[in-house]
Design a protein that fits this description.
Layout (H helix, E strand, L loop, with lengths): L28 H15 L7 H8 L10 E7 H11 L18 E7 L3 E7 L6 H20 L5 H6 L7 E4 L4 E4 L6 H14 L17 H15 L5 H6 L3 H10 L6 H13 L3 H23 L1
Parallel strand pairs: 1-2
Antiparallel strand pairs: 2-3, 4-5
């Protein structure tokens, strides 16, 4: 970096900075990689900046970390250059030591004529299955790039192995598998939560507070639940059971007639899944039935 008096500094300088990029599905992999490399080269002038300053400039709330993973690249030629720099009187030998970082997921990339990629996960925070999934996915992505740079980014992503969905549980500080809604009621509640929290990947075991919830949002969720299902749920129920699954149980326990809430949720999902033409046809059929009923009552 072009920092003042950088050439006079003695010691090893290591700094970790965030990298963020957009995946444009219709762009060729070759062009996407070239653009990413150009942006990285432009950012070299600021790579000595502290993560705290970057977070302040970005406007990202302090309750969020800039990144949860670390990528380390080591060119094998750098080791040979170090041997020449030390002189003929010194030898460099490899030592096998445990790799540990302050991040839940660390990816080590290196090699010379062959590239190796090692994915290391903190088992206290990251399930083994997720670490294996990341390693296999990374391997497939790199192989896909080397065999088809002219294909689109979307095509490359579509060829990757199927993955399970995971989410960071901020309350527990660990990564958990995302569990999708299993019933119509959980699906409707998850959509209500997602609309108010501004998230689209909500699982039924995600913690309301960990996903950015607070008392005002809790009041709004309870109000939406009352309007949708005609059930009075106290705000405290959301804090006592701060997941979609637990809220679904609370709503069901307070329904006036058994099965009423489930029927409403199923109806909402059925309507949401209908096309515009289907909605028009359904409305026309409803109006026709209403006219027939009115005529029958008149006779």
């Amino acid at each position: 970096a072009d920092a003042p008096r950088a050439t006079e500094i003695v010691g090893v300088l290591i700094n970790n900075v965030p990298v963020r990029t957009r995946l444009a599905a219709d762009v060729a992999v070759r062009d996407w990689l070239a653009a990413l490399q150009r942006r990285q080269a432009e950012l070299r002038a600021a790579e000595h900046v502290s993560p705290e300053a970057i977070q302040r400039w970005s406007g990202l709330e302090w309750r969020h970390r800039l990144f949860e993973s670390l990528v380390v690249f080591q060119d094998a030629s750098a080791d040979r250059g170090m041997e020449r720099w030390l002189g003929a009187g010194a030898t460099v030998t490899g030592a096998v030591t445990p790799t540990e970082t302050a991040y839940p997921i660390t990816v080590l990339v290196g090699g010379d004529d062959r590239l190796f990629i090692r994915v290391i996960s903190d088992r206290r925070l990251v399930p083994t299955a997720l670490g294996e999934q990341l390693a296999l996915g990374t391997q497939a992505a790199v192989r896909g790039m080397t065999s088809g740079l002219e294909q689109s980014v979307g095509a490359l992503r579509g060829a990757l192995p199927a993955v399970r969905s995971w989410v960071m549980d901020g309350a527990a500080g660990v990564v958990r598998e995302r569990i999708a809604p299993r019933t119509a009621l959980e699906g409707v509640l998850a959509r209500i939560w997602g609309d108010l929290l501004g998230v689209s990947d909500l699982g039924v075991t995600d913690n309301f507070l960990a996903r950015g919830g607070h008392s005002l949002l809790a009041t709004q969720i309870v109000s939406r639940v009352r309007e949708t299902f005609q059930v009075e749920v106290p705000v405290r129920a959301l804090f006592q059971g701060p997941t979609v699954a637990e809220l679904a149980l609370a709503v069901t326990a307070l329904e006036r007639k058994p099965g009423q809430v489930a029927r409403i949720a199923e109806l909402i999902q059925r309507v949401d899944g209908m096309s515009a033409d289907e909605l028009r046809q359904s409305a026309a059929a409803r109006d026709a039935r209403a006219r027939q009923t009115a005529m029958a009552n008149g006779n």
